[in-house]
């Protein structure tokens, strides 16, 4: 039971990554590789600040801002520098590696003996793993409400149109470059937030902790889409990401339980994502075959 509760808590805090990637992957329709650098950037920033006596709340907010700056760099390289988005993300991700080493002063840094978001006194009275769930629920609710409200505004609608049909957006007088930069900043801000939360939950930050992050975030999105129908409102789609993230964590727990080594988790994650990506096509073929047989 404790492992399952832990999986729920992990799913909640990792859902922030799914939210961030959803904005770029599904709404803006771009493949942003900055994610794998922004995640450890948020972790490094938060852990370093907390280690130096800064409040965990302020440290987490600064980590979110740092992630937004990384998104800004990628956005400028893409829109103003005319560098392909994939290459722009890789360039930023590569540069962030050195930035993280500068921030921490070493390859990894521990939070041993330091208070973080999950270890405040009022949370210590809760059963094991419940502080992560409580903090995760609060943060996820706030992000979901903010994103849902933002995407309903004129600015949010302009952002959606930019990803859906850039030519039409420009014909309506929308500055698509600015919308793209905004989207990358918000998305990577959420990724930086996710890195800060995961680092505080784990108790350390490491420069290599971003490897495979994009697969985890994609898995949350794709699994949520596979579980639920296509006819969902935007706020409902955000909720499916949370469900997908938690479900993905449950799958990893089952994989470890049946005897797989922790070193195999990256391979297992890739396989899970691959299967999830293939399921919609397989489901469509099954429906088509069923229809043809009835006909």
From TrEMBL:
Q: Name one GO cellular component term.
A: plasma membrane
An example Gene Ontology molecular-function term? transmembrane transporter activity
Q: How does it sit in the membrane?
A: Multi-pass membrane protein
According to the record, the segments passing through the membrane are 12-28, 57-78, 85-104, 130-151, 172-197, 209-228, 240-259, 265-282
Q: Is Transmembrane among this UniProt entry's keywords?
A: yes
Cellular location of this protein? Cell membrane
Q: Which InterPro entries match?
A: ABC_transp_permease
Question: The organism sits in which domain of life?
Answer: Bacteria
Keyword Transmembrane assigned: yes
Keywords from UniProt, A to Z, are: Cell membrane, Membrane, Transmembrane, Transmembrane helix
What is the official name of this protein in its record?
Answer: ABC transport system permease protein
